[in-house]
């Protein structure tokens, strides 16, 4: 175990589970271990929280096995590969000291850092509805941070549906004109690869698996992403495709109210229109997932969520 929080054998078992049904075939697991523990390269990370509830940070932080400490501090950092240089909630520094860390990291590591964005970006009136820190007594907008930090990144990971597609902050009537990362980059004419990791929140395995994927293989080729910029290994099949309630559907048994046994299509399940591997991965370290808890899938990983899926509890 050494000074790591969990034994390497256990970590490898977790890596295997996290990457199940992905191109990380078991034969590649030693390479995963090498990438996560060997002294190969340094990848500074800048994690910026924009217009968001912080749920995606909480989801990733709440991983039990491995804990976020194992992932970021123990398992990844010993190889000096990942440095989480900026995360406004996790870091001790505050105010100008913290935002300077993000800016200095970007300036010193042009083309080498991974820019992680959580939350949508307000764009009305130059983005004045969302600010992060101050300079010379004036607030710096999240939009301005996108302008500063996005162009020099080797890749941008849009964590959660708000960052990927706008999500709840951009729901109608969207008075702040909030947008997802892809739309903001188009607005700013910035051309940097973006990998979307949607979900409300994002599943920790989807996040860690994507980071590992970028470490091992670099930017995923277009064939590995779907038309919405998501890795097909996690979002390639619909929730409905692997749902545990398919037998109910086939037998014509439909729930008409909450708590009733049956497929939940009539009470608003969006599983047929939603792409994610929740039925096989599950949530809270494999404890449960929406439909198994008798809650219809709300389609939280899709572009257009929540507007396109509202009213949530009515059949689409
Ligand atoms: S509960 Fe939803 S995902 Fe499951 S079979 Fe019914 S419609 Fe499909
Ligand atoms: S089952 Fe549907 S609503 Fe639940 S987390 Fe998965 S995609 Fe989101």
CATH architectural label of the largest domain: 3-Layer(aba) Sandwich
Count all strands and give the number.
Answer: 9
- Radius of gyration over alpha carbons? 20 Å
Number of domain units = 2
**Chemical compounds bound to the protein:** iron/sulfur cluster
The biggest sheet, with number of strands, parallel, antiparallel or mixed sense and barrel status, is: 5 strands, parallel
The percent range for strand residues is: 5-15%
What is the CA-CA span between the terminal residues?
A: 51 Å
The level of helicity is 25-40%
* Helix-strand sequence: HHEHHEHEEEEHEHEHEHHHH
Shape: globular
> What name is given to the CATH topology of the largest domain?
Rossmann fold
Name of the CATH class of the largest domain: Alpha Beta
Number of helices: 12
The residue ranges in which pLDDT falls below 50 over 5 or more consecutive positions are: 1-6, 11-30
Notes on the protein architecture:
The protein contains twelve helices and nine strands. It has two domains: 8-234, Rossmann fold (3-Layer(aba) Sandwich); 237-316, Cytochrome-c3 hydrogenase, C-terminal domain (Cytochrome-c3 Hydrogenase, Chain A, domain 2, Irregular). It has helices at residues 8-18, 29-37, 55-61, 68-76, 95-108, 142-149, 161-165, 181-188, 204-217, 232-235, 246-250, 278-281; strands at 43-49, 82-87, 113-118, 121-122, 131-135, 138-141, 153-159, 178-179, 194-197. The relative contact order is 0.12. The strands form three sheets. It has a five-stranded parallel β-sheet with strand order 2-1-3-7-9, with helices on both faces. A two-stranded antiparallel sheet has the order 4-8. A two-stranded antiparallel ribbon has the order 5-6. By secondary structure, it is an alpha/beta fold. It is globular and about 65 Å long. Strand 5 and strand 6 (138-141) form a beta hairpin. The N and C termini lie far apart (51 Å). It binds iron/sulfur cluster (2 copies). Residues 239-240, 243, 245-246, 249, 263-265, 269, 271-272, 291, 297 line the site of one iron/sulfur cluster.
